[in-house]
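Dear colleagues,

As part of the handover before I leave the project, I'm documenting each prediction I ran so the next person doesn't have to rerun anything. This entry is a single chain, and its sequence is reproduced below.
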Amino acid sequence: MARFLAGLFRIYVPGVAGFTLFGLLLLLGLGQKKAWARKAVPIFALLGLAQLVQVNYGANPAVPRAFFTYRPPVLSKFSGQPGSYRFDAQPRNATVTADTKDFQGFVSFEAVPEVAGLPSIAQGAFQQKLVLGAGSMLEGVEGSLNLDIERSLPPFLYDGWIYMLKQAPETLHLDCLLGRANVKYIIRARRRDSSGSRLLGEVFNGSPKPSYLYEDLYFLPRAYVAGTAIFTTSPLETLSRMASPDYDALENVIIAVEPGNSSAVRGSGPAGQVEITERRPSRVTMKADLACPGYVVLLDRYDSNWHATIDGREVRVLRANQLFRAVYAGPGQHVIMFYFRQRGLLAGMFISALTLAGLMGLFLCDPGLI
């Protein structure tokens, strides 16, 4: 804390003192109606903006720049295009008793010059960064953690997490479920081998005892075409199927509607191929080539505000595999686009425009009314 305050003092106090004196002089000149004071006001504002830019650009008195540019060694073991896979960093058990030998609770960063001498609170944040538990998007990879402090996420997401944390029979089933959620790599605080994953090596986490990196052998690509659809609204049935090693996830999709409320398909082989050609936060474009009718599945989170078009025609977006989204498509080549648009946005804009027009009309008719 003392170092942090000293850094703040060194960086900010000289500039604040200078601007305070200049501001007092300027106020004195304005009070005396001096011409130079009026001309100096915009100059004073521009100098203030320049000072803010100069001080804050690349400067952080709490931590060195290397804190943000450091690349965890585990990234060298990841392969694949960014955005084509996820990782899952499973935290250690936070419950520590007097009889627990929790060596990962002892953080030692002597081997990492970038964080040597940092206060303990900053070292804790850096330890999460080492195992990609936080700040992962800055490293070009995507995690599977949902942070929901206000408990505002839809129930179907909680059903998935509850199953993984409490209901999965064993590690193999957890590996199956994670892999079918596009998780390619798993980082575990303790070694837990299963036939569903392959140990790649140890992960340095800043403590005397390492974490472990696994490759999920049930990994599914971010997008695929399913020739067979299963219909159920039961979260437990859906998640149990996806967690079963015998389930053919690449040929099937589980749609969260009652049977008869969406097109039924049942194929006997690969239904087609799909390729993501553009991926942005609010839009995903794909090219699909289907040999027979099927569902194009995108393993990105479902939300009712996501819409889709096939060859420019609006189609229904369905919740697939409990957490994700899919659209029904016929045989042939298609361009499929998912785009995010808040429901009710157009109606809200229309109402706001009418309100603004009404207020302007009242003002023109009688300015005293507004």
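DSSP finds eight helices and 16 strands in the chain. The chain has three domains: 2-56, 71-93+102-216, 223-340.

All the best with the project,
I.
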